[in-house]
Structure formats: structure tokens, C-alpha cells
């Protein structure tokens, strides 16, 4: 006893084979439970609803939990109403174009319109974009400040990043406008890519 006290050692704890199996099974169940939970969460988040507009010749898939709107200056718009602050939005609109109209002309016109109604609207870059069917498009990224209109959150504002994808087909321009809070923009881009891959027009 004196020797054990002086050296700070304690007798080795013996684990029986049954206890070893119990520990191993517990770890396996924890890992399985975690995997099942992640799978169910992903399945819920990835549920999709179908959108079809025969008149515009557009069909699409969008996240089932997002709100669909068809009244406005667009063909349709979907918004993630579950997110606090600025709601992530994807909006599809079309406009007739003349023979000499270019994609850049249309984007410049959008910039002029938005700079008059959006706070601190700034164009960040223009890039080439490739649609799911391989056809070329052009994209424009931008930012602006959104102010919350809720009376309980008056004065709060957030930075919003946006990305427009524009292509001209059959005499009309199709514009896919995506906007999300700057804090979640990179993550939400995955939803935009999925949306574009499933968009037919």
C-alpha cells in the first residue's frame, strides 16, 4: 500500500470481454445514429417541387420548403422564408431583345435600374458562364445593402451578394437572378447550381 501511494500508481482496471463488446457496440450505435440523422436531414433539405410554365416554355425544380411566387415583373420567384434576415431568392425573368442587343447591354440596363432603388448597389465582376446543356451565358456578380423592414428590427441592415446569369435565345433574354445574405452566400451557391442544372427552357 505504501509503495502504491509513493509512486502514484493504482491497480490496473480489468475490463471483461463483455464490457469490451458493450463499449464497441455503443460506439457503433453512435456512429450509425449520426449517419442516419445526417441522411434524414439531407433528404428533407433536398426535397424538390416542380414548376412548369407552358406559356413561357420553362420547367424547373426548386427546394420544396421555399415559397413560390408568380405575381410580379418576373416569370417566377422562389424564396427561402425559413432564413432569418434577408431571404435567399432565385428569380427567373425574360425580356424581348432586338437584333443588335447584347448581353452586356441588358446587364448595364439592370445595373442602372437597380442603382436607383438598392442601397450601395455595386457591380463586382462579369464572367462567362456555362449552362447545364453546354450553351454559353454571361454572369454578373454584385452587392448591395438590405435594410430590414420589420418594425421590431428597424435599423438593422445586411450585406447581400447577388449573381445574375443571362442568356439570349429565340429573340428573348432569360435572366436568372440569385441573391443571398453575404454570410451564407457561398453555401447557398450550391442551391443555385442545382437549380440551374434542373432548369429547362
Residue runs with pLDDT of under 50 for 5 or more positions: 1-7
Shape: elongated
Helix/strand class: alpha+beta
The amount of helix comes to: 25-40%
The radius of gyration computed from the alpha-carbon positions, rounded to a whole number of angstroms, is 26 Å
- Topology as a string of helices (H) and strands (E): HHEEEEEHEEEEH
Q: Main sheet: which strands, in order across? A: 3-4-5-9-8-7-6
Report the count of strand segments. 9
Largest sheet: 7 strands, antiparallel
Q: What is the end-to-end distance?
A: 84 Å
Kindly state the mean pLDDT as a whole number? 86
What is the number of helices? 4
Q: Which percent band covers the strand fraction?
A: 35-45%
Oligomer: single chain
List keywords for this structure.
201 residues, alpha+beta, seven-stranded antiparallel sheet, two-stranded antiparallel ribbon, 37% strand, elongated
Short description:
With 201 residues, the protein is α+β, with helices and mostly antiparallel strands. It contains four helices and nine strands.
What does the model show?
The protein has 201 residues and is an alpha+beta fold. 30% of the residues lie in helices and 37% in strands. It has four helices and nine strands. The chain has a seven-stranded antiparallel beta sheet, sandwiched between helices. Strands 1-2 form a two-stranded antiparallel ribbon.
Amino acid at each position: 500500500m505504501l509503495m502504491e501511494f509513493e509512486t502514484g500508481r493504482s491497480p490496473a482496471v480489468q475490463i471483461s470481454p463483455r464490457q469490451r463488446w458493450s463499449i464497441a457496440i455503443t460506439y457503433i450505435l453512435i456512429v450509425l445514429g449520426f449517419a442516419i440523422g445526417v441522411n434524414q436531414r439531407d433528404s428533407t433539405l433536398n426535397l424538390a417541387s416542380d414548376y412548369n410554365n407552358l406559356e413561357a416554355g420553362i420547367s424547373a425544380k426548386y427546394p420544396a420548403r421555399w415559397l413560390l411566387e408568380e405575381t410580379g415583373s418576373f416569370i417566377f420567384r422562389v424564396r427561402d422564408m425559413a432564413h432569418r434576415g434577408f431571404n435567399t431568392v432565385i428569380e427567373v425573368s425574360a425580356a424581348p431583345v432586338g437584333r443588335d442587343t447584347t448581353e452586356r447591354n441588358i446587364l448595364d440596363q439592370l445595373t442602372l435600374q437597380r442603382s436607383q432603388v438598392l442601397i450601395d448597389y455595386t457591380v463586382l465582376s462579369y464572367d462567362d458562364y456555362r449552362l447545364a446543356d453546354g450553351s454559353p451565358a454571361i454572369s454578373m456578380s454584385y452587392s448591395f445593402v438590405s435594410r430590414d423592414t420589420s418594425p421590431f428590427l428597424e435599423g438593422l441592415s445586411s450585406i447581400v451578394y447577388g449573381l445574375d446569369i443571362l442568356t439570349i435565345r429565340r429573340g428573348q433574354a432569360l435572366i436568372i437572378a440569385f441573391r443571398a445574405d453575404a454570410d451564407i452566400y457561398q453555401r447557398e451557391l450550391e442551391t443555385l447550381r442545382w437549380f440551374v442544372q434542373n432548369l429547362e427552357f
